[in-house]
Amino acid sequence: MGPDGIHPRVLRELVDDVTKPLSIIFEKSWQSGEVSTDWKMLNITLIFKKGKEEDPGNYRPVSLVSVPGKIMDQVLLETLSRHMENKEIIGECPHGFTKGKSCLINLVASYDDVTASVNKGKATDTVYLDLSKTFDTVPHNILVSKLERHGFDRWTTEWIKNWLDNQTQKVAVNGSMSKWLAVTSLVLQGVVLGPLEGGDAIQRDLDKLEKWVHANVMKFNQAKCRILRVDQGNPKHKFRLGRELTESIPTGKELGVLLDEKLDMSWQCVFVA
């Protein structure tokens, strides 16, 4: 449950009775650009990931919000997605947050590119980039300005702007609650993956990405930015992203998939297919 204390099961059991009034509230909210204060209150709960339980860094924070507000959010998300598809705002490359393009499909496509280069006797470098703390660092004003620049209608952008303003949250752990705190950034996450060929071309792209990150008040997690080199004749260009990037060991775990020295990912490709 979110801070409103209304369990989703209640809404599901009363769906025939609440659908019409909720649809009226949603439409009025969208047309006026006003968002209920209750919808902008979040309970933050912690989910254990791995490692030592006493280490706070091993927990993932998850926001629990009012279910009606979450439904309204999903309705607008569908509208935003259709607009981006119709206007072709997002290209063919992005995966993970694009319908029908999962991270696993991205791995299959990347694997195909790398093995094709290896078969031709070409040395290939795959650069893995990870944005640091994107949950906490995406500025609201930059996000809204980008929505306006890409032609989203005024009602939608005004609603999103209102929804982002004056959000409050509290942390709930084992029944104990913190004080309400203001939220200053949007919950987003991003990972940039680029299998590229040619030392100068890769470095130029890395320089462009670094400028983009600074312009959007974000930064890369240097500890997770790595290079995976393939083929024995690899010239091993030195790449930098603020500082020199570290090489990955092929036997390590890359984006959730184990790669051995022969880059044997056939089982993964078969599974996805």
Automatic annotation (TrEMBL):
Residues 51-196 form the Reverse transcriptase domain. GO terms for molecular function: RNA-directed DNA polymerase activity. Keywords: Nucleotidyltransferase, RNA-directed DNA polymerase, Transferase. InterPro entries: DNA/RNA_pol_sf, RT_dom. This is Rna-directed dna polymerase from mobile element jockey-like.
